[in-house]
Amino acid sequence: MSITSPLFQHHKHCDEIFASAEDACANGDWEAGAKAFTLLVEQLETHFGTEEEVLFPAFETATGMTSGPTEVMRGEHRQMRDLLAQMKDALTSRDADAFSGAAETLLILMQQHNMKEENILYPMCDNTLGSSDVGPTLVERLKTS
């Protein structure tokens, strides 16, 4: 059973919102950019929270691994939150160069992060938790959108 399927799909959803925010700001449409960016932050925080509060603790409890891949993902979530704060500041001051620079760094980090989750961590979680008693409950709790 793939318990992480909702999170995989949510990555794509967040990517689409990110592209909308980036495009709007690149074209000088700060109002649309701000709207898309606000939605992006909300969706990413929902996603991060679901992983940090539901998936990661369940995986850590089942495996006993607390300083492995979940620790790395939490650290990357912090880095992404820092970049989102930089983007928010740039958006507020309508600084296209600063917004674009932080957005480019965030995009690279998100792509690398998502690849690690989708190709390493999520399959580990599916294998460990999918056939466990908590698997069906986790599927519902991991639906982020």
From TrEMBL:
<dbReference type="Pfam" id="PF01814">
    <property type="entry name" value="Hemerythrin"/>
</dbReference>
<feature type="domain" description="Hemerythrin-like">
    <location>
        <begin position="7"/>
        <end position="125"/>
    </location>
</feature>
<dbReference type="InterPro" id="IPR012312">
    <property type="entry name" value="Hemerythrin-like"/>
</dbReference>
<protein>
    <recommendedName>
        <fullName>Hemerythrin-like domain-containing protein</fullName>
    </recommendedName>
</protein>
<dbReference type="GO" id="GO:0005886">
    <property type="term" value="C:plasma membrane"/>
</dbReference>
